[in-house]
Amino acid sequence: METTIEERKKAEAKYEDAVASGNQMAVLAQHVSSQSRNLIRVNMGNFPPRSLAKLTCFMYTELPIEDDSFCFRLPLSYIPKYMFGNAPEEEK
Predict the structure, then answer these.
(1) Closest among 74, 31, 5, 25 to 15, alpha carbons compared
(2) What is the rounded CA–CA span in Å between residue 65 and residue 27?
(3) Cα–Cα dist 26/53, whole Å
(4) 26 backbone dihedrals φ, ψ, rounded to 5°
(5) Over the stretch 12-37, which tens digit does the pLDDT of each residue have?
């Protein structure tokens, strides 16, 4: 499967059309809110029963310079700040 990045309304319309047709699997990934870019929802439509899906995510960040060197810190655990229904202040 290959994907492209498209304008939100166009991507949502294509996803809805693909789900309604029932002929192909459809995937739509989007940010949950416009205020925060830390949470992404992935919708999968027309996913066949007893099928497997593998979602691979890539993360990138700008590396700061410390002491004339690039500094990369990899967290030992990654827990989104939106776990267990805790919404950020601006979304409450």
Answers:
(1) 25
(2) 37
(3) 12
(4) -125, 140
(5) 999 999 899 987 788 888 877 656 55
> What's the rounded Cα separation, in Å, for the pair 12 and 23?
17
pTM of the full structure? 0.53
Three-state secondary structure string covering 18-72: HHHHCCCCEEEEEECCCCCCCCEEEEEECCCCCCCCCCCCCCCCCCCEECCEECC
Distance, in Å, from the CA atom of 76 to the CA atom of 87, rounded to the nearest integer, reads: 23
pLDDT digits (tens, 9 = 90+) for 42-83: 888 888 888 888 877 777 788 899 999 999 887 666 555 555
Its sign, for the CA torsion 46, 26, 55, 91, is negative
The two three-digit tokens of residue 90, written as one number: 């601006």
d(CA 61, CA 74): 11
